[in-house]
Amino acid sequence: MTRWGYVALGLALATLAGSAVVQALYHDSMPEKVPTHWGLDGQPDGWTSKDRVVLIFYALPLAALGVITLGLFVLPWLSPRNYSVEGFRRTYEYVFALVAGVFAFLHATFLWATIHSERLPERPFLAGFFVFFALVGNVLGKVKSNFWLGIRTPWTLADPKVWDRTHRVGAWSFTTGGVIGAIAVLLGVPPIGAFFGVIVGALWPVVYSAILYKRLERTGQLTIQQSGEAVSP
After folding, report:
1. CB 153 within 8 A of CB 197
2. Is 232 exposed, middle or buried (0-12, 13-18, 19+ CB in 10 A)?
3. Where does residue 220 rank: exposed (0-12), middle (13-18), buried (19+ CB within 10 A)?
4. What pLDDT score was predicted for residue 230?
5. What does the DSSP assignment read for 163-204?
6. Which of 137, 155, 135, 136 is nearest to 145 (CA)?
7. Residue 21: its pLDDT value, please?
């Protein structure tokens, strides 16, 4: 495991431990009725008594720990030999560190709004999603062919050239969409409008991979064609 794997695991455990500390320090001072759900406008639209908020303190941290454990230990072991994550393990674990970080950020935001019985700071909250999207995009070009991470379409998985080129394109579109989305939502653009750039950034590489595969297939440039193996008509 690389240092990013330890960072991911450490963040997940720290989020869980932090919840226990926050519960011990603030539970008694919380109002009797606390918010448990918020709308897109940040206003609370679901409530419960403070004695029934155990899930709020521990559900997300436990989910984060489960996802990180699965990603760091189980999925690499399950990977077929030709799709191993070992060739880009540092990048793979860096992404899981980002996942652990966004879980911690979301959980801290939820706890703050719950403890203070206030509206969710929806614009910083949503901006966190966009920043996560951009940071993943920043390393997407380093992700090698595998079954768990990246732009896994029939065309990228079928040919390494298509995988590599699609992920280079995806790196730009993910990063650009994330940065623009974060700036837009902080400047007051409606969330639906801000998410439009992220949706385009996520979908364009999928379309690109199909177009690229068919072009390389038509010109005989697919890896399997150049290796001399038989290709079905």
Report:
1. no
2. exposed
3. exposed
4. 45
5. HHHHHHHHHHHHHHHHHHHHHHHHTT--HHHHHHHHHHHHHH
6. 155
7. 92
Are 88 and 142 spatial neighbours (Cβ–Cβ below 8 Å)?
Answer: yes
pTM for this one? 0.89
Whether 99 and 136 have beta carbons less than 8 Å apart is answered as no
Give the angle subtended at the CA of 182 by the CAs of 177 and 185, to the nearest 5°: 115
The whole-number mean pLDDT for each consecutive block of 10 residues of the chain, a chain of 233 residues, reads 96 95 83 75 76 81 96 95 92 97 92 78 88 95 95 95 96 94 90 84 95 94 70 41
Contact 53, 19 (CB under 8 A): no
- C-alpha pair distances (Å), 227 with each of 70, 158, 176, 223: 36, 14, 36, 6
Contact 141, 64 (CB under 8 A): no
Q: Where are the alpha helices (DSSP H) in the chain?
A: 3-26, 54-69, 75-78, 89-115, 122-139, 154-158, 160-186, 191-218, 223-226
Write down the pLDDT at residue 233.
Answer: 38
b/e burial code for range 154-178 (CB count within 10 A of at least 16 → b): ebbbbbebbbebbbebbbbbbbbbb
Phi-psi region of 156 (alpha: psi -120 to 50; beta: other; left: phi over 0): alpha
